[in-house]
UniProtKB/TrEMBL annotation:
Top-level class of the enzyme under EC nomenclature: hydrolase
Name assigned to this protein: pectinesterase
Annotated Pectinesterase catalytic domain residues: 54-142, 154-213
Family that this chain belongs to: Belongs to the pectinesterase family.
Position of the signal peptide: none
Keyword line: Aspartyl esterase, Hydrolase
Keyword rRNA-binding applies: no
Any one GO molecular function term: pectinesterase activity
Pathway linked to the protein: Glycan metabolism; pectin degradation; 2-dehydro-3-deoxy-D-gluconate from pectin: step 1/5
SUPFAM superfamilies according to UniProt: Pectin lyase-like
GO annotation terms (biological process): cell wall modification; pectin catabolic process
Catalytic activity, EC: 3.1.1.11
Organism listed in the record: Brassica carinata (Ethiopian mustard)
């Protein structure tokens, strides 16, 4: 997580973000009050590459498996353009991982996992269980042939249980696109979810209601 050093908000114009970052986010040694573990991890980052045509690793999961358990250094996994058809999971014991693509040719992570085979929660194309994860210039796709049950489709389901929790999802200058319609931006899985979409382009695939209370009236706040 990166916090600005003052109250200047992230600019609405995407082309101004880099300038805002340089003006408001101090160099690592000057950032006071950051999590000490994060400071130590960012001090000595290392980069590994994934490219089916000749990178250090041919698949994303091979690269992720190379990161040691209880990792303490930022590991940037630089991903070559192309489609990666694999089920990607980053376990809890592998923090400080960044998946980074080329902004001009973003790699696509896609998989056709089903609830019948993996269970609903574990059927996602990309599952992040670790802390201090980042994804930059990545496209994540899922495939679904048939909707069963109540047919509710959501992008996020944050499980915050109290307002004191310091976790959440933040999407800044992103795009929500696809086919179909009626997809919710988030579902209140627990009582205090925290999800923010800032300056994000959304197409008609998004349900106009935006959010779903998970059929629990108390969550509709």
């Amino acid at each position: 997580m990166v916090l600005a050093d003052d109250a200047t908000p992230i600019p609405e114009a995407k082309v101004q973000v880099e300038q805002w970052f340089e003006a408001n986010v101090a160099p690592l040694p000057a950032r006071k009050g950051l999590d000490p573990a994060l400071v130590a991890a960012e001090a000595e980052p290392r980069t590994i590459t994934v490219d089916p045509k000749g990178g250090e690793f041919k698949t994303l999961m091979d690269a992720i498996k190379s990161v040691p358990a209880e990792n303490t250094k930022r590991v940037i996994i630089k991903i070559a353009p192309g489609e990666y058809r694999e089920k990607v999971t980053i376990d809890r014991n592998k923090p400080f991982i960044t998946l980074m693509g080329d902004p001009k040719a973003m790699p696509v992570i896609t998989f056709d996992g089903t609830a019948a085979k993996y269970g609903t929660v574990d059927s996602a194309s990309l599952i992040i269980l670790s802390d201090y994860f980042m994804a930059v210039n990545i496209i994540v796709k899922g495939t679904q042939l048939h909707v069963v049950g109540d047919g509710i489709r959501v992008i996020t389901a944050h499980a915050g249980k109290s307002k004191e929790e310091k976790s959440g999802y933040s999407f800044v200058h992103c795009k929500v696109t696809g086919v179909g319609e009626g997809i919710y931006l988030g579902r209140a899985w627990m009582s205090h979810p925290k999800v923010v979409y800032a300056y994000t382009e959304m197409t008609s695939v998004v349900n106009p209601a935006g959010w779903q209370e998970n059929k629990i009236a108390e969550h509709d706040k």
